[in-house]
Amino acid sequence: MDYKYTTRNENDTIELAQNLEAEKFPNMVICLNGDLGTGKTVFVKGFAQALGIDDTITSPTFNIVKEYNSGELPLFHMDVYRLEDKKDDIGISDYYYKGGITIIEWADLLNDELPEERLEIKFKFVDENTRVLIFKPYGKLYEDICNSVL
């Protein structure tokens, strides 16, 4: 089952991410998809703030993975937009089981590299400020999170 949520500005996106963070658990995987400028990195910023991470969160486009260890749980922020065919070379799937939270921007480019249980969020542009987020949970735990937060 898919869930829809509409944000009217960046603060709505940040608040939603903070509400999801309240339901966090070790080895949580969140997959973010959507065009450039739809709010994926804004979402990660909100999630990181709620985790207690004070670092400046930027998209790791050229790094692929940025690790933040100063919060309640480690945060592994990935941007796989430029990864191309080197997915196996950097051990992306290893991050899923390191006891932290993995958030992947452009996750649809990984296809078979994603864990069976995860939360996918598709960001759709409506206008300059408005976005529709479509949540697709894979697994009961992620369904429960959607039911409690959305």
What does this protein look like?
The protein is of the alpha/beta class and 150 residues long. It is built from 4 helices and 7 strands. The chain has helices at residues 10-21, 40-51, 92-95, 140-149, and strands at 3-7, 28-34, 65-68, 75-79, 101-105, 118-125, 131-138. It has a 7-stranded mixed β-sheet with strand order 1-7-6-2-5-4-3.
Search tags:
alpha/beta, 28% strand, 4 helices, 25% helix, 150 residues, 7 strands, 7-stranded mixed β-sheet
Sum this structure up briefly:
The chain has 150 residues and is an alpha/beta fold.
> Ranges with pLDDT <50 over ≥5 residues?
none
Main sheet record: 7 strands, mixed
The structural class is alpha/beta
Helix count? Answer: 4
Biggest β-sheet: strands ordered side by side in the sheet: 1-7-6-2-5-4-3
N-to-C terminal Cα separation, in Å? 13 Å
* Bulk shape: globular
Number of strands: 7
Assembly form of the protein: single chain
Please bin the fraction of helical residues: 25-40%
Indicate the radius of gyration in whole angstroms. 14 Å
Order of helices and strands: EHEHEEHEEEH
Q: Give the overall average pLDDT.
A: 92
Question: Beta-strand level of the residues, as a percent range?
Answer: 25-35%
Secondary-structure map:
Layout: E1 3-7, H1 10-21, E2 28-34, H2 40-51, E3 65-68, E4 75-79, H3 92-95, E5 101-105, E6 118-125, E7 131-138, H4 140-149
Parallel strand pairs: 2-5, 2-6, 4-5
Antiparallel strand pairs: 1-7, 3-4, 6-7
